Amino acid sequence: MSSVLRPRIAISACLLGDRVRYDGGHKAHAVARDVLAPHVEWIPVCPEVEAGLGVPRPAIEVVADDPVRVARVEGGADVQTPLLVAARHRIRALAEWGVDGHVVKARSPSCGLGDTPRPGAGGVGPGLYVSRLLVDLPDLPIEDESGLDDADRLRRFLDAVVARAIRRTSSQADAGTWLSRVLG
Ligand code: SF4
Predict the structure, then answer these.
(1) Which among 97, 166, 168, 170 is most buried, taking Cβ atoms within 10 Å?
(2) Ligand 1 atom nearest to CA at 14
(3) Structure confidence by residue, pLDDT tens digits, 3-59
(4) What are the boundaries of each domain within the chain?
(5) With a 6 A CB cut-off, is 48 part of the ligand 1 pocket?
(6) Could you tell me which residue, 119 or 85, shows the higher pLDDT?
(7) How buried is 54 (Cβ within 10 angstroms: 0-12 exposed, 13-18 middle, 19+ buried)?
């Protein structure tokens, strides 16, 4: 029996249209939902909801680097501890289950890949969740939604993803054929 290869990719849930943002909204991304969804197995992840911060919730921001620290913009309860605990739990689960890549939401204090602003401190860097992801799963292919809109970045990302998926599943699928089917 032949089975079609479907790489397993974690994704910031708001990019799939889930209303999990701090303001109750989403950031549905057309490439994720329309182009990639038929060919991959999405694993939606929202680090802030998984930390129990709720929807809607007070906005957070990155307040320090190395290690990354976050806090509520308006002050108040500690959010660093629950976010770190949830991030470690989620990343361990992804590693145990086997995941071939991760798509994350740009500029987010949790999910940003490298362009999240540091108000006060200046500059940009990763969000808290992604800072842990980069340490704990250093070989995992990661892109943000701007990479889904860039043909070269998307192809590089999917190339790495499908190679991992073939290794993980011991599939006989051909990576080039899979890429052609997805990207045309
Ligand atoms: S960017 Fe990350 S933490 Fe923020 S809503 Fe999307 S999935 Fe949740």
Answers:
(1) 166
(2) 6
(3) 789 999 999 999 999 999 999 999 999 999 999 999 999 999 999 999 999 999 999
(4) 8-183
(5) yes
(6) 85
(7) exposed
Q: How far apart are CA 118 and CA 166, in angstroms?
A: 38
| Mean pLDDT of the 143-160 span | 98
- Centroid of ligand 1 to alpha carbon of 160 (angstroms): 24
What DSSP letter does each residue of the chain carry, written as one string? -------EEEEEGGGGT-S-STTS-----HIIIIIITTTSEEEEE-HHHHTT--SS---EEEEETTTTEEEETT--S--HHHHHHHHHHHHHHHHHH---EEEE-TT-TTT-SS-EE-TTT-SEE--HHHHHHHHHSTTS-EEEHHHHTSHHHHHHHHHHHHHHHHHHHT----HHHHHHHHH-
Distance 111 CA to ligand 1 centre (A): 6
Backbone φ, ψ for residue 115 (5° rounding): -120, 20
Binned at pLDDT 50, 70 and 90, residue 143 comes out as very high
Predicted pLDDT of residue 1: 43
| Binding site membership of 12 for ligand 1 (Cβ less than 6 Å) | yes
C-alpha to C-alpha distances, 181 to 1, 19, 100, nearest whole angstrom:
20, 30, 18
